[in-house]
Design a protein that fits this description.
Helix content is 44%, strand content 15%. The chain has 383 residues and is α/β, with parallel strands linked by helices. The chain has an 8-stranded parallel beta barrel with strand order 1-2-3-4-5-6-8-10, surrounded by 6 helices. The chain has a two-stranded antiparallel sheet with strand order 9-11.
């Protein structure tokens, strides 16, 4: 029997076992369990046709994930593809302030809990995103005219409450998201200096404080700084490197850096990405690629040219190759996984799209094949 057949058989066996257990223990309709059944049934057939992206990632000892919107888990094709192809998930919005904190006194964990239940039913890890961000905060917070002392108390309480709620369920958190501007300076924000949490004008000290609070709330969780446009070597990535090197030297509890990698053109500099990942890993940090997508021009019907999709695939391939060349790069995650729900179309007003490995009908694209082939090849010799 071939390795492929063995892998497929094992996957089918695991799916049947989960299905059997669910049927035995769920005596009445339960929404998350029902969604799990919907996701498993298509997977029983598809896994018999060869290894999946998830399977080759597990052989390569790397996490491969996707950002997820919990309401879409009710769609059979969405849930089955997600469970079959990925071993890690992250909430796009369900763990951000504006979802978790509709007002100052209420926490709403329903969407985040649904994602956690789905992941547990399919043996997937969960990344948390994100505890602190200067944008898209609820109006009651952003326009609340709080004093620095009040904001400090609110933020500390939020971090403690959210992380304790998900302790043992969320293995890694994007603690602070996009705190630096394009020149590598600390960005003006509610948390830094408008009015800030009492550390205004002190550079990265407010970021340091947040990481200390996060570690105290859940000492077992991996803590990441997550940033956009810092994937290669530039002013911003130099500033990220300087900050996290300082944190490591002073034993600030930080475990890794998340590189978003929303690639807006088909010209990613793989050598620069490789160099940046290597220098971060040399500090003893993990690197996660957290929000990967590669957009291409589309016509009025949202279609891209075959040539652009082929070039897109090579960008995906080069990024995975750069990651796998460093043992410190331990996860690759796309921002969504199907073009059906990508943010790129609305963000670009329809001029760009088709940024993800699966098309709008959940068919794998050349980008998927590139991901699969590069991860199948494994890490570079010696890594």
């Amino acid at each position: 029997m071939s390795f492929t057949t063995l892998s497929a058989s094992a996957e089918v066996g695991r799916n049947f076992a989960v299905l059997r257990t669910t049927l035995r223990t769920k005596t009445r309709f339960h929404r998350p369990a029902f969604f799990m059944l919907l996701a498993l049934l298509p997977g029983l057939a598809s896994s018999a046709h060869g290894p999946t992206l998830r399977q080759v990632a597990e052989q390569a000892r790397i996490l491969v994930g996707a950002a997820v919107r919990p309401p879409q888990l009710s769609e059979t094709a969405y849930a089955s593809t997600l469970a079959r192809e990925f071993n890690m998930v992250e909430a796009e919005d369900a763990m951000k302030w504006w979802v978790l904190r509709p007002n100052a006194t209420t926490y709403d964990f329903r969407q985040g809990d649904e994602l956690v239940r789905f992941s547990q039913g399919h043996g997937m890890k969960v990344r948390g995103h994100c505890l602190v961000w200067g944008r898209n905060n609820p109006d009651w917070l952003a326009k609340g005219h709080f004093s620095p002392k009040q904001l400090s108390q609110l933020l500390h309480q939020h971090i403690r409450r959210v992380m304790k709620h998900y302790a043992g369920q969320v293995f890694a958190w994007d603690v602070v998201n996009e705190a630096l501007d394009e020149n590598g300076n600390v960005r003006d924000s509610l948390w830094y200096n408008k009015p800030g949490i009492g550390l205004s004008g002190q550079g990265t000290h407010y970021i340091e404080q947040v990481f200390r609070w996060a570690h105290n709330a859940d000492p077992k969780a991996l803590l990441f700084y997550n940033e956009a446009e810092g994937e290669g070597v530039n002013r911003k990535s130099d500033a990220i490197y300087a900050m996290v090197k300082d944190f490591r030297q002073r034993r600030v509890p930080i475990d890794g850096v998340g590189l978003q990698m929303h690639i807006p053109a088909l010209d990613a500099d793989a050598s620069a990405i490789k160099a940046n990942v290597a220098r971060l890993a040399a500090l003893g940090l993990q690197v996660h690629i957290t929000e990967l997508d590669v957009s291409v021009p589309v016509d009025s019907r949202g279609n891209a040219s075959a040539d652009d999709l082929a070039r897109q695939a090579e960008v995906y391939r080069s990024i995975v190759h750069a990651c796998l060349n460093s043992r410190g790069c331990t996860a690759i995650q796309t921002w969504g996984f199907t073009d059906k729900y990508s943010w790129i179309g609305s963000h670009s007003r329809g001029s760009r799209g088709q940024a993800l490995p699966f098309d709008r009908t959940y068919e794998p694209k050349p980008a998927y094949r590139a991901l699969f082939e590069e991860i199948s090849a494994g890490r570079a010799a010696g890594d």
